[in-house]
Design a protein that fits this description.
Helix content is 78%, strand content 0%. By secondary structure, it is an all-alpha fold.
Length: 106
Amino acid sequence: MSSYEIYLAIIVMALVNLFTRAFPFIFFKKNHLPKSLDFLQRFFPATIMTILVVYSIKDVDFVNNYYGLKEFGAIIFTVVVHQKFKNYLVSIFGGTIFYMFLVQYI
């Protein structure tokens, strides 16, 4: 890639990032959100967490490697952390760090 193409890619990425951050303020100036966005706001985090759980156990070998105990231990840990703190970000990072600890040291 030439320098021109790299600079052009950076400019395009910056504009797209700016647009995605400014989009809600530009198009939804009213006090209430449309019902579709309210639905997404309410159910999207739980949907993402479900997808992450399914994705994390899809390749677990239940015959070897302690029968997936590390993965299920991390899932249970994540559920407990989420029940305690009620914060998706803390749950995802806590579960990931705990799983990485299990994989590296146990």
